[in-house]
Amino acid sequence: MTCMIASQALLRPSARKSASTQRVDRKGQILLAAERLFAQFGFHAVSIRQIAQEAQVPLALVGYHFGQKQDLFHAIFEHWSGTIEERMQGLQAVQSLPHSRVKLQHIVEAFVSPVIRLRASPEGEAYALLLTKGLSPQSDEADRVLRDFFDPMAESFITAMHETLSQENPQAELTRGTAAWCYQFSLGALLHHLGDSRVSRLSHGQCIPNDSQVQPHLISFIVHGIRGAVHSFHPPVKKRRLS
Q1: Measured between alpha carbons, how far is 228 from 178 in angstroms, rounded to an integer?
Q2: Are 96 and 32 found together in one domain?
Q3: Please, what is the angle between helix 48-55 and helix 2-41, to 10°?
Q4: Which alpha helices (H) appear in 196-214, and where do they start and end?
Q5: Do the domain assignments include residue 150?
Q6: What confidence score (pLDDT) does residue 138 get?
Q7: Is 12 part of a structural domain of the chain?
Q8: pLDDT tens string 60-71
Q9: Which one of 51, 79, 107 terminates a domain?
C-alpha cells in the first residue's frame, strides 16, 4: 500500500506537467488558428466561434486564454515581436557604422530582410500575410497594434533615414517629413511584395509571387526610390551663371 502511494506521488508531477503542456499546446492552437483566419479573411470577417472551430477547442477556451477578439489579435503580434526586435538589432548595428554611401542600403536591408525570411518560412507565412491585410484598414484594433509594436520601430528607422540622407545631401536641409515619406514608400513596396500574387499572371509565368530570391532587387529598388524621392522633395538649387 505504501509503495502504491509512493508511486502515485511520483507520477503526479509528471501528470501535472502533461496537463500543463496540453494547455500550452491548446493556447498555441488558438493563436495559430486566429492568425490563419485573420490573414485570410480579415479581422472583422472572423468570429471567435470560427477560431475555436479552426483550433478544434471549446469556444469558452478562446476567451479564457485571450479574452476579447481584439485582445487575441493583439496577442498574435506580441507572439511575433521577435521579428521587430531582429529588425531593430540590425538597425542598431548599422547605426554604429561610420557614414558611407552604402549605409542607406544597410538600413533598408535591416528593414526588409527579416520579413522576407519570415514570409519564406512555413511557420511565418500566415503572419507575413497578416501584416499585409490585417494592418491596412484604419480600425481601432489595427491602430492599437501599430502604436504598440510598429510605431516605435518606424520612428527609429525614420530617424536613421533622416540622419543618413541628411549626410548624403548636406545642402538640401532635409526634413523629417521627407524621411517619413521615404519610410512609407519603402513600407508600401515591401508589403506589396509580401502579399501580391498577380505578378505571376502579369509576367506570363516568369515571376514567382513573393520570391525571396528577388530580395536584393527589392532592396535596390527601395534605395534608389528613396534617393529619387529626396531629390524630388528637395531639388538641387541651380547656380546662376555670372554674365
Answers
A1: 11
A2: no
A3: 130
A4: 199-202
A5: yes
A6: 66
A7: no
A8: 999 999 999 999
A9: 79
Tally of structural domains, the chain: 2
pLDDT tens, position by position, 198-212: 999 999 999 999 999
The CATH number assigned to the domain holding 116 equals: 1.10.357.10
Tell me the mean pLDDT in the region 158-169: 96
DSSP state string for 13-25: HHHHHHHHHHHHH
Q: What is the DSSP letter of 236?
A: P
* Whole-angstrom distance, CA of residue 75 vs CA of residue 77: 5
Mark whether 95 and 183 lie in a shared domain.
yes
- Phi/psi of residue 185, nearest 5 degrees: -65, -40
- The rounded distance, in Å, linking the Cα atoms of 169 and 215 is 27
In a domain, 215, yes or no: yes
Q: What's the mean pLDDT in 27-42?
A: 92
Domain coverage including residue 133: 81-233
End-to-end CA distance of the chain: 113
Residues with Cβ within 8 Å of 74's Cβ and at least 6 positions away in sequence, in order, are 141, 144, 145, 148
pLDDT of residue 236: 80
pTM comes to 0.84
User: What are the residues whose beta carbons fall under 8 Å from the beta carbon of 200, sequence distance 6 or more?
Assistant: 207, 208, 209
Could you tell me if 33 and 116 lie in one domain?
no
Domain end (from 10, 44, 79): 79
* Contact yes or no for 154/183 (Cβ under 8 A): yes
The residue among 131 and 87 whose pLDDT is bigger is 87
Of the given ranges (8-12, 19-23, 194-198), which has the lowest mean pLDDT? 8-12
Residue 122 belongs to some domain of the structure: yes
How many residues are recorded in the chain? 243
